[in-house]
Amino acid sequence: MDHAKAQYALFVGAQASELSAVRADLKHAIFHGARLNAADFGGCDLLQAQFADAQCQGARFGGCNLTYADFSRADLTGADLSQTTTLRTKLHASKTEHADWTGTDRLTTLGDDPDLKEAETFHYRITS
Q: What's the rounded Cα separation, in Å, for the pair 123 and 65?
């Protein structure tokens, strides 16, 4: 998918580990629940792309535009996020251990939303 133009494309639940999508235009694409381990999105435009619940272990996003992208509950363990634009990139409940953020302004990202986290982990208990 290198250099593909796939704005608004749906990749929900895709099994695409080791995918190569270098410099693709994937604005507003939806990768909800996709398996993208070791995928290469280097230099992509992922403006407002949705990666909620995606598995992106070791994926490469270096040089991407991740403005307003949503990685809620995504696994970004060991991912390359160097030199990315992360204006209001949502990282709620995501796993980012050992991710490379070199040259990226983490202060522009959105972290955990405490109210949403409480709602996602709420368990109703019946008491008598």
A: 37
Which string of DSSP letters, residue by residue, matches the chain? -TT-B-TT-B-TT-B-TT-B-TT-B-TT-B-TT-B-TT-B-TT-B-TT-B-TT-B-TT-B-TT-B-TT-B-TT-B-TT-B-TT-B-TT-B-TT-B-TT-B-TT--GGGSB---HHHHHHHT-------
Tokens of 52: 């909620």
Are 79 and 104 in contact by the 8 Å Cβ rule? The answer is no
pLDDT of residue 121: 85
The low-confidence residues of the chain, meaning pLDDT below 70, are 128
Angstrom distance (rounded) from CA 111 to CA 108: 10
